[in-house]
Amino acid sequence: MSRIITLSFAILSLLPTCTAQKLHPCRFSATSHVGRIQDIDVQRVAVIEPDKEVQATVFVPDSGVPVPGIVFSHSAIHGANNDTDLRRFALALARAGAASIVLDGVINWQSGPNDDSIRPPEFQFCAGQWLLQNVRLDLTRTADAGNQQLGWVDDGVSRYGVERSLKARCWPGGVWLDFGQTGEAARNTDEMLTLKGQMAMAYGVQKHLELKEVKPEWLADTAQPIPW
Length: 228
Prior knowledge:
Helix content is 25%, strand content 29%. It is built from six helices and twelve strands. The strands form two sheets. Strands 1, 2, 3, 4, 5, 6, 9, 11 and 12 form a nine-stranded mixed beta sheet that branches. Strands 8-7-10 form a three-stranded mixed beta sheet. The longest helix is centred in the last third of the chain and has 15 residues, at 195-209.
């Protein structure tokens, strides 16, 4: 296990149905095509809840075979001295072969560790559902990145729970790349504000999702224009 990555493994085996989806239908906006970057399709979509709508950026690499999938809870980390663009991090992972959906939002780390940015779990679950329904995924290689509130707020059902409903399969979750909250994830967050830490996290993702090598220049090249 990497020194700065505390990887938490969720259930990877899938049944054909989804308790969480049955209890909590997901709604999305129409998808808009933003552009292409080096054989990666960039799209925008919104996850719609009754009281809030969260936009997201999607990165899908060209591939003739199913690809790994990652759900990011936020699109940026703001630290006391520097910031990290998690969309650029997701783009680097897309260049290595993984599709990602990155929810808009900031993890504010300027005053130190906190849990203020953790959203209700429906947003990350539904973002994963969008990825599951719109991208040809290898469901044995999936991950959640960022912070998360485990379980469902309203009914207490784990978002990884499944049952036979003869409807959509669940986003299965997967390796948890934990940062953006207190506890063991706090050190990961501090490290993600540095290039060295991002490379260590990328190496862990590369290993567990069986990606191509992630190159440091993919994360360091902030001069390349990105269409978002």
